[in-house]
Specification:
This protein is an alpha+beta fold. 18% of the residues lie in helices and 31% in strands. The chain is built from 12 helices and 44 strands. The strands form 10 sheets. Strands 31, 32, 33, 34, 35, 36, 37, 38, 40 and 42 form a 10-stranded mixed beta sheet that branches. Strands 1, 3, 4, 7, 10 and 13 form a 6-stranded antiparallel beta sheet that branches. The protein has a 5-stranded antiparallel beta sheet with strand order 2-5-12-8-9, with no helix packed on it. Strand 37, helix 9 and strand 38 (638-639) form a beta-alpha-beta unit. Helix 6 (534-549) packs across helix 8 and helix 10 packs parallel to helix 11 (705-722). It is globular.
Amino acid sequence: MRFSLFACCLAVSLLTALESSRAPAAEQGETVRLWTFDTDGDREGWTGTNGLQDVSVQDGVLRGTVSGRDPFIVVSGLDFSARPWNVLHARLRIVQDEPLLERGGELFYANSEEGPFGGFSQAKTSQWTAADANTWQIVRIYPFWSKEGSIIKLRLDFPAPAENQINKAVVEVDWIELVDLKLESQPAIEPSWIVENGDIDSWQSPMFSLDAEKIGNWLTISASVDAPRSVEFSWMNGRGAFYSTAVDLKKSATGIFNVDLSNSKYWKGPVHQFRLQILPDAESKAAVTFQAVAVHPQPQGPANINVMFCGMEDALVRAGYETAFFLDLVNCGGDDSPALTLDGMKLPEGVSLMDEQGRTTIEPFRIGERRRMLFPVQVAKPVEGTISFRLAGSGKREFPAVAVEIPISVLPSLNLPKADYVPEPRPVKSEYEIGALYFPGWYHGHSWSRIWNRCPVRRPLLGWYNESSPEVIDWQIKWSVENGIQFYLVDWYWNKGNRHLEHWIKGFQQARYKSYLKWAMMWANHNGPGSHSLEDQANVTKYWIDNYFNTPEYYSIDGRPVVMIWSPEGMDRDVIAIEKQKGRELKKGEGVKQLLDVSREMARQAGLKGIYFVAMKWPEASTSAADIQWLADAGFEMTSIYHFMDDGGKAITRRKFSFDLVVEASKPYWQKRHETGILPFLPNLSTGWDDRPWNDHCWIADRTPDKFAEICRQFQQFSKETGIKRAVLAPVNEWGEGSYAEPCREFEFGMYEAVRDNLCEKPESGWPLNYGPQDVGLGPYEYTEGAKY
């Protein structure tokens, strides 16, 4: 094992010592200020308090009862230099008789007393996260505040309590310490650590300062694991923010796991700290024991062939199909692999390998090489079973065999006649008006490659399709209306006359079955400051009127064409800034109101009844009356959200949590939003979130069609209670963000059928049959470079 050691930084032993001690200790460097609260009655300068009552020092602890929604303590009269490598440590806990619903805390800092909050502002703050209730923890906050010059006061904010914990929860602070790590003068180090006490849920390195490009791209974790588990590896960048990637650990003979960090766009520039955390898993409680963590220019250890993914290529497999299974393999070791053979292959009855000659040998893998291979098979009859074999090394070199098992489910043939085109849709009826958000980002190989390289289980039933094709869109229309989805809200992009991602709309306008489905714009105005004016609003409205509003397929509410807007705040900001330059001060909402008034007047002059504007961000998922009222005052007539991905405050970490929490939180959120009574809203039926292909920020795991069906049933009950009959699915095809419901390898038709079965009227003749293009001799619709549609 080629690990170089930074002997003076055994981070875990230090962390353990800090957690178990009632005395503070610096990591490296020197203590700048220290508050120990060792003398009864002496708050040591922490005199300013808010949301806390009966604050006192007793038995070596600063203690206060939480009496409001914003509890914090303040210390003033400081005067020290704001250094780039300052870190604030605090040993504290929150005592209450229920789990914490909110875990986020903040450190505010100020270098003056000016401003409405005595020098404090949201721009000068760093975050921290509370542990479980009743648990002592060492909080470490890296403010990166050197541009402030000096610091004269601090404010430590604690998480907001649940309503039933006000006047009951207690905050206890054992000590607070400010340290200067002096990393500018640190000796040269190798980013490599031995992990002592490795059977822990989390680990973090000491602070350091290194360049990501210079230390290499290969993370090496030495660990033993009983069964597959996921961990999160995080690194701090030069601004003190943490970025992360999820790492899947599987049982390995070598115990060495190499991860290519170059796949992350955030692995660049200065890095200052590493963290590892075992992610919660509802299905596995397997133990993980860490031995070492390092970053190297090359992978470490012997050749190690990792089966990244394997499975059946087609989303649906029926008797009579010619299909294939795939292997996605990567050499994660530090040496080239020998040639491999597929030894001892066992196939279920009725499944046969179509090309046995030469297809069971795999050429050697170079270090770091990843390769995807297809092995054609023919399926003669329905069967449930497993394709199994071993990947064994050939030749004299010793290589541990890798066992592979691929489940296969062969459904009965439908015996449908061949079709010349997509068969005509048979819409189902519903007392509800159900829509879906749609992201038109799937017309070239670059986007799809990020999906099949990270989450191939998401492969659509249409294949890696080009959604410019009217024939592809006709399949989407057919499946939607036959499962209860009546309209799409399509992401639409316009900035000062520049438009993009219009290909789906253009394809829809040529689709044979466009009359079956309504659509409207979800204007994704992710535009920077200064990008919108009254003139811009007039131009964009003219485009809407000339190209969309008068088409029969455009979706309307109360006879008015619908426009959903992603960011009312951005539009409001721009107009307020323009008016301020003219010497006129506008209040919040008055800027965007001017824009909406321009559009409505133009629509009326064009013979329309007006425009029905729906606001998207306010911020997303807020139920605050103030966050809704300003949109009502600005002239919006409805609000909605793009994704509902709330955990109800119950997730241990937002990095990965169960979809069960989203199910639990959905109906309570709708109820709170409805109780405001300010504006109608469009409930969002969550289709999940798992953005590992895009940004790797949040993974909501364990989603199933049955759990999504429960959300549909909750909406049915909510509708009975409130009379609200209209709802929208979160995106049906955000394959990169992980919000999807279209028929695919993972769920087949399950997500769509959950809508149909719970919110639609079953015809006397039975539900329309759900089937794919291959069942009627059509397709495939794989994206190909240069295809013309």
